[in-house]
Amino acid sequence: MEFIFWLLFVFSAITHLVFWYIYSKNYRFATLIFDLLPYYPYLVIINSLVSLTSIIYLLMDYNFIFWMFILPGIIFPNIYLFQSFQSWKNDYKLSRLKKFWIHLVKNPDVELIAMKDWVIKPVKKPNKAIIIVRHDVDISLKRAMKMIELEAELQIPAIYFLRNNAEKFTFSEVIEVFKSQSSIYFDVGFHYETLAKTKGKIDPAIPLFKEEVEEFKKHFPITLVAGHGEKYVSQKLVRDNYLDLTEYNLKSAYRIGHDLYISEAGGKHHFIVDKKSVTFWDKLAILDDLPKGSVVQILIHADWWF
Ligand SMILES: [Zn+2]
Questions:
Q1: Nearest of 294, 301, 230 to residue 269 by alpha carbon
Q2: CA atoms within 13 A on the CB side of 220
Q3: Ligand 1 centre from 200 Cα, in Å?
Q4: Residue 85 CB-density burial (10 A; 0-12 exposed, 13-18 middle, 19+ buried)
């Protein structure tokens, strides 16, 4: 019996360290076991109960002074983790995003335009602020579909930049899933990661990009691309002019002439939090009072929203 409790204790201690690791990396590594994303607060509770039960059983003969140190040492870090995961979960609620979109769509001073349409006719409106919605699909096709459904319901035009070679899905799956989607409110772009494939080497990246774009165009009639960036930031190919996208009749999402760019990538909770602790939600609030004539690009990673 004692062996089982030791086992449970060691297991809960390791799990606890994994949670701290996820927390310390701003939750990015939570995607390792991706579909557990919304359940982290509950997993922390279960795990702390397991460690408490096992440690009480194993060390029950110890005196009161000993427990005065042991119990808070288990309880307080777990409460902290629970609260952090809970606030993270609240930040990424689709229902919260939905409320925000409804509020934005109702704003008469704002017009939502598809990125594809904007690049064809990039004419600012003197009496309105233009908002362009973009999504990069890095990890989950399922979550991208949920986002598309939400936007279809609210008639929000958006563009989805798709990888052709991701850890969690194949390009055939991308084609199948996105071609079967009936919503008319979304477009597709190519989320290229060519530089990652050539391990940062520029020379082989140029012909490879050409090859990849040709293949991508066989399935999706794209006019826009956006570089995916992890270790190698593929955007560098366009940013530093190694690639001339006009040769491919393409445009980069980073060069559409927006005045403001709001993204939830990076920073605390994966949200951008600058030195003044401004979060993604704070930045979205700016949209309530945008100067007329301005153009805003909003990037949201559907992977994180549930
Ligand atoms: Zn990406």
A1: 301
A2: 30
A3: 16
A4: buried
Burial class of residue 18 (count of CB atoms within 10 Å of its CB; 0-12, 13-18, 19+):
middle
**φ and ψ of 162, to 5 deg:** -110, 135
Q: Mind listing the pLDDT tens digit for each residue in 48-95?
A: 999 999 999 988 888 888 888 888 999 999 999 999 999 888 888 999
Mean pLDDT (whole number) for 119-133: 95
Distance 68 CA to ligand 1 centre (A): 47
CA distance 164 to 223: 16
Residue 173 and residue 143 in contact, taking contact as beta carbons nearer than 8 Å: no
Q: Which of 303, 39, 11 is nearest to 168 (CA)?
A: 303
Alpha helices in 25-140 (DSSP H): 40-58, 64-91, 94-106, 115-120
Distance separating alpha carbons of residues 47 and 55, to the nearest angstrom: 12
Secondary structure (3-state) at 152: helix
Confidence (pTM) = 0.88
Residue 82 has a CB neighbour count (10 Å cut-off) of 19
Residue 80: both structure tokens together? 């902290």
SS3 112: strand
What's the gap in Å between 52 CA and the centre of ligand 1?
Answer: 40
Compute φ and ψ for 225, nearest 5 degrees: -130, 160
Q: Give the residue extent of every domain in the chain.
A: 2-91, 94-304
- Dump pLDDT digits (tens) for 248-287: 999 999 999 999 999 887 655 566 556 566 778 888 888 8
Neighbours of ion ligand 1 (CB under 5 A): 136, 138, 228
Ligand 1 centre to CA of 226 (Å) is 8
CATH of domain 94-304: 3.20.20.370
